[in-house]
Structures are given as structure tokens and as C-alpha cells.
Specification:
The protein contains 26 helices and eight strands. By secondary structure, it is mainly α. A hairpin with a 5-residue loop joins strand 7 and strand 8.
Length: about 600
């Protein structure tokens, strides 16, 4: 039966579509989508409009990226342009008639990639839910072979999604099959990939289905880590030792756990030693990481492993490398306002780094933050050349029409110190800063970020570790702040800014308290309350602690009504879907990332 969209089973069968892409050129669902689009175009060229529409619909269904950890939103748009407000297909875009068509052809689809996608969409969207759809998706997902060449070509996501579907529909027989096949793959050798064993173990751990063989996994990971360490592959060895320590802890094997933690610290120190001849900045960072790694050893075991002596020795090495490290931080500078040149140089600045940690160092060195004196001098020059624009006062309105600030007209009969003239200058400075930030984000941060994500994988664990090592991140805030920073690498800037604002306020408060500032007020009833970020940043201690440039930057981004004012926008729920993913929030995310990473190098909140 034909529906109103002209979608029929007969037309699908007449399309006779096959996934005719050579195995070496297959990259998961993106290749399935491209193949369907190619055949759709061929049908259109033959004048078969309904056939072309059918294949184009299937291509849209295949276009979505798998997000296997999510129960309710396991598919994400393949393309999303925050600024233009455009995106590719999402599950809710498919109509009831299109879903009925998917169901009609499900048993006729022979290609596992497409069958899994259609069955999964039917399980997700049809009401009432049909467990048969979930099971069809599971069987199709796990028909993909476990191979190191294709693991990151959506195969890992397929197996994880299949396992989580099993848990959701409580199909423990299928889950047992998945567990057995994954462990069998873990025990195999992968001469072409040093990480395949790690990836499988990590997936088993995330799924929490490795209870029967945790001991085996822990010892295997530890052994491979030692092999990598002997080859001088410190980064890979640390990854294996880290996961091994987690598995040993789950097994209550204290010796294995402590041995892995010690090995992680030694890896950092050995890498720092090897990098000191090339970059003091990088070496210094690794020495600091080594100290932080040794501090993970519980106090009662430190004498056994001579931890305190090792930390003292590393600090001596840091004293040498730390002095020169900041001078090596490169800053990208381009003449004029040529965004294309800025983007090119920014990409070159972050290209080819050995690992994600080093890439972060260079990414956060793209722009060292605003220079208040430079902005002020530029603003004064503009005002002198265009006095007319400052002769009138102005009102500043928020996106919802509220007047949030007023600037008086210049007082031409008074000097620079006159309050009205100071206010006019401040307005112009904020305008200059806003222009500069737009150039930084569009010409440097976003191009560099897009390129970094092509070369490296930035995990939540990496960002949490960076926060753990940062001296400006207060204790027990590593998870929250690390997660917020990781969201930026997922382009989830809206979610990130809502987590970042309160954490930034706590960081500022903690730093001021350590500097001896009073951060509270006592009301008439004798109740002591914490001051907000705006009040904190107006303290004299803030200027002394953070310096003129960073104080201006924090105020402009988070508290100044003429600036981005993100702290108050977030606190009062004023950011909507568009403004929460704006140039301003992207910069705020990158700014905090910069402060965290830089603090690991110099141990100070100042730039």
C-alpha cells in the first residue's frame, strides 16, 4: 500500500540498493549515507523520482551519528551549525508515515548497517515500543566484526549500543553473547594497533559486564603497559597503567593498584626527562603531572615506595625547567583583521602535536588574553577621532529588551578623570574588546578546535585530570569543572557555560580567601553570606591577585553589564538555546580552559 509520501515496499525493492563501497573505504554510517545519496542521485538522473526520494530518506536516516551511552537520545545530528541555526537530520524529524515505511521494509533490508539503524529508530520512536525492533537492531549491530581497523569507524559504537539495548530490554542471553565475544576479542593479538586491547577493555569496563574476568584484564593491561614503557611510548603506557589501576582496585588487589599508580608517576617523570632538551614548558608540565601522580599514593604507603623523596627530586628538576617554560608559549599574531590568515596560522599553530596534552598547551596559547592598556589606548584614539559619537548618552539593552546599563555623555569641559568621561571610555573599551573576541573566536579558537578534533581525542577523563593537576581548581571540583571543559570539545557550549559560571565564581572566591581577602558580608540579623562574583571582583585584593588584564577579562566576560555579563545571564536563566552557544560563551569556555592549563605550568591565576 502506498502512503501519501509515495513510499512503498515495492519501490524500495525496485531500487535494489547494495552497499557497494570497497571495504577499505568504509567509514561507518557516513559511508552508508554517502552510498545511499549516490544511488539516489543516479535514480533521479534516470527519471525515477519516487525511487530517488526513497533512497534519500534512507540516507537521512543513516546520516545521524551514534551516541550509544544515551538511552533517550542515542543519535546526534551529523552536521550542526550553531551560528546559522542549521543542522542535519535527528530522530524527531521522521514522520509517522516514514516510520511505517521503515517497518514495512525492515525484513527486506540485507545490509546490517542500514537494518540496525532502521530497527533502532523504530524502537526509539514507535509507540507502543516493540522489543522485536530492539532485538533486530542488536543482532544487526553485533554482526559487525571486531577489528582494529574498523573499531573507530562506528563499530565500537555499534557494539556498545547493542549492549545497552540488551540491558534496556533485559535480554541477558544476547548480552552474554556480546560479553563473551568482546572478551574473546580482548584476548586476541593486534599487531597493527597498540590500543585495540585497551579500547575493548575500556568498553567492557564502561558497560560493567567484565565481572567474570577483571583479574585477567588487569594483569594483561599491566603487562602491555610495561611493554609500551620499554619502547619509550610513555603516553600509551600511562593509558594502560591507568586502566589497569582501575581494574586492580575493582578486584581489591592493593599491590597491583599501587604498582600501577607508581608506574604512572614514573612515566610522567621519564617523559619529562626526555622532553626537557626540546621544550622546558612541556617538560615542566610533565614534572608537575608526576608529582600529582605520586600524591595519589595513600599516605600510609608512601614510605614503602619512597614517595616523598621522589617528589623532592622532581621539584629540583622543575626549578630548572620552570624558569624558561613561559617564554616558550607561542602567541599567534596577524596584522589587520584578515580572518582567513588568522585561521590558517591558528591551525598551523596546533597541527602535528604528539598527543592531546601537548595539543592543549598550544591550543590555549593561541591568544594570551586582552591587554587592558592596549584596549584603553585604542579606545581613546577612536574617541578623539570621533567625538560626535560620545556627545550623547546611551542605554544598553539585553536580548529580551531590558535596559541593563546606561552610559552618560562625555563632559567635554572636564578631564579624563571625570566620571562621565570614564564611563564613556569604559563603553568604548568594551566595544573594542567585543570586536577582538569575535576575531579571536572565529579566526583562531574555532578553526583550531575543529582541526584539533581531527587529530586528537579529548576525553572527559583528560579534562578532569587537567583540573586535578591545576593549582587554581579547588579540591573536589575536578569532576564538575573537567566535565564542563570537556563539553566544549563536544561543541556543547550551552551546557558548558551553565556549569562554568558557578565554578569560576568559586575559583575566584577560593583564590581571594587564600590571599587573605574577606569574601563574605554580615547582614543586620548577623547572618554571614558569601559575596557574589561582581562584588568579589571589585575587591582591591582581586586586582592585586589577578593583575589588571585578567581582572578586566573576568569582569568583561562574567560580570560587566556592558560586557558579556555571563554570570548574571546564567544565574537568572536569561540564556536561551541560541545565546547559550554564542561567540561569548565559546570564548568564556576557552578562557577558563586557558587559565586551567596555564596554571599547571606556572601555578598562578595571573596570565
Amino acid at each position: 500500500m502506498e502512503n501519501s509520501l509515495g513510499l512503498t515496499r515495492d519501490i524500495f525493492l525496485e531500487c535494489n540498493w547494495t552497499y557497494d563501497v570497497p571495504p577499505d573505504d568504509r567509514y561507518g554510517y557516513s559511508s552508508v549515507m554517502s552510498c545511499l545519496q549516490k544511488h539516489s542521485k543516479e535514480m533521479l538522473e534516470q527519471g525515477k523520482i519516487e525511487h530517488s526520494k526513497t533512497l534519500d530518506l534512507l540516507a537521512r536516516s543513516a546520516s545521524m551519528m551514534l551516541a550509544p551511552r544515551s538511552i533517550n537520545e542515542p543519535f546526534k545530528a551529523y552536521i550542526q551549525d550553531f551560528q546559522a541555526g542549521r543542522r542535519s537530520a535527528l530522530p524527531d524529524d521522521f514522520t509517522e508515515e516514514e516510520l511505517m515505511f521503515f517497518e514495512a521494509i525492515l525484513n527486506d533490508v540485507n545490509e546490517p548497517w542500514l537494518k540496525a539503524r532502521l530497527a533502532d529508530l523504530l524502537w526509539l520512536l514507535r509507540k507502543p515500543k516493540n522489543p522485536g525492533h530492539a532485538k533486530a537492531a542488536i543482532d544487526s549491530y553485533i554482526s559487525q566484526p571486531l577489528d582494529d581497523e574498523t573499531w573507530h569507524r562506528d563499530v565500537k559504537n555499534c557494539w556498545e549500543r547493542a549492549a545497552r539495548l540488551c540491558m534496556q530490554v533485559r535480554d541477558f542471553d544476547r548480552l552474554s553473547t556480546i560479553k563473551s565475544q568482546l572478551f574473546s576479542a580482548f584476548c586476541s593479538e593486534y599487531p597493527r594497533s597498540k590500543f585495540m586491547t585497551f579500547w575493548i577493555a575500556d568498553l567492557l569496563d564502561n558497560l560493567n559486564i567484565d565481572g567474570d574476568f577483571k583479574e585477567n584484564i588487569a594483569s594483561t593491561l599491566h603487562g602491555k603497559a610495561n611493554d609500551l614503557l620499554k619502547d619509550g611510548d610513555f603516553h600509551s603506557a600511562r593509558s594502560y597503567f591507568e586502566l589497569a589501576s582501575k581494574k586492580y582496585q575493582q578486584c581489591s588487589d592493593e599491590n597491583g593498584w599501587l604498582g600501577s599508580l607508581i608506574a604512572i608517576a614514573e612515566c610522567f617523570e621519564l617523559e619529562a626527562d626526555s622532553r626537557s632538551s626540546g621544550s622546558n614548558m612541556v617538560a615542566n608540565s610533565f614534572y608537575e603531572n608526576a608529582i600529582q601522580a605520586y600524591r595519589r599514593i595513600p599516605t600510609k604507603h608512601r614510605d614503602t615506595y619512597c614517595v616523598e623523596e621522589k617528589i623532592i627530586a622532581i621539584r629540583h628538576k622543575m626549578a630548572t625547567s620552570g624558569k624558561a617554560s613561559l617564554e616558550e608559549m607561542g602567541v599567534v599574531k596577524t596584522p589587520g583583521i584578515d580572518i582567513s590568515d588568522m585561521a590558517k596560522q591558528s591551525i598551523e599553530h596546533v597541527t602535528g602535536k604528539r598527543n592531546a596534552e601537548e595539543a592543549l598547551m598550544y591550543f590555549t596559547g593561541l591568544f594570551s588574553g586582552p591587554r587592558y592598556k592596549t584596549l584603553s589606548d585604542s579606545a581613546k584614539e577612536i574617541m578623539q577621532k570621533s567625538v560626535f559619537g560620545s556627545l550623547f548618552g546611551s542605554s544598553h539593552m539585553s536580548s529580551d529588551g531590558r535596559v541593563i546599563a546606561k552610559t552618560p555623555a562625555m563632559n567635554l569641559s572636564a578631564g579624563e578623570d571625570d566620571p562621565a568621561n570614564q564611563a564613556a571610555l569604559h563603553r568604548q573599551i568594551q566595544q573594542q574588546f567585543s570586536i577582538e573576541i569575535q576575531l579571536v573566536v572565529e579566526g583562531q579558537v574555532l578553526p583550531a578546535l575543529r582541526h584539533l578534533l581531527m587529530e586528537h581525542r579529548f576525553t572527559k577523563e583528560l579534562m578532569v585530570a587537567a583540573c586535578h593537576h591545576s593549582p587554581i581548581v579547588p579540591q573536589n571540583r575536578e569532576e564538575l569543572l573537567g566535565y564542563a571543559l570537556w563539553l566544549g570539545f563536544e561543541y556543547e557550549f550551552g551546557a558548558a557555560i551553565h556549569l562554568l559560571c558557578p565554578q569560576v565564581e568559586h575559583i575566584v572566591r577560593s583564590q581571594l580567601k587564600e590571599a587573605g581577602a574577606h569574601t563574605t558580608n554580615i547582614d543586620r540579623e548577623g547572618i554571614e553570606n558569601e559575596n557574589g562574583l561582581s562584588t568579589l571582583m571589585d575587591l582591591q585584593e582581586a586586582l592585586k591577585l589577578f593583575g589588571e588584564d585578567l581582572t578586566f577579562e573576568i569582569k568583561s566576560v562574567f560580570t560587566d553589564a556592558l560586557g558579556f555579563n555571563l554570570r548574571n545571564e546564567v544565574a537568572h536563566g536569561l540564556l536561551d538555546d541560541n545565546t547559550s552557544a554564542s561567540i561569548h560563551t565559546i570564548y568564556a569556555w576557552w578562557m577558563i580552559l586557558r587559565l586551567v592549563i596555564r596554571s599547571i605550568v606556572d601555578g598562578s591565576p595571573k596570565e
